[in-house]
Structure to design on (73 residues):
């Protein structure tokens, strides 16, 4: 996945206005080219899911470590 590629968030309705201001294209048509490639959407959603699961795993391991250090003291 290209790191310079912007994240497509289907629930962020402000991004259409930001993209329209940058490119000076009709806001109703702006962003529609991103919807034409479902692979990009699914890849970004997978990367976001992977990020969330890694963060959750990190927090669980951090809690376990804190619990172990409290028991040792």
């Amino acid at each position: 996945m290209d790191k310079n590629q912007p994240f497509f968030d289907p629930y962020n309705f402000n991004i259409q206005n930001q993209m329209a201001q940058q490119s000076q294209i009709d806001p109703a048509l702006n962003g529609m080219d991103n919807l034409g490639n479902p692979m990009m959407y699914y890849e970004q959603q997978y990367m976001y899911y992977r990020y969330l699961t890694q963060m959750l795993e990190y927090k669980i391991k951090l809690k376990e470590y804190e619990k172990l250090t409290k028991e040792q003291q």
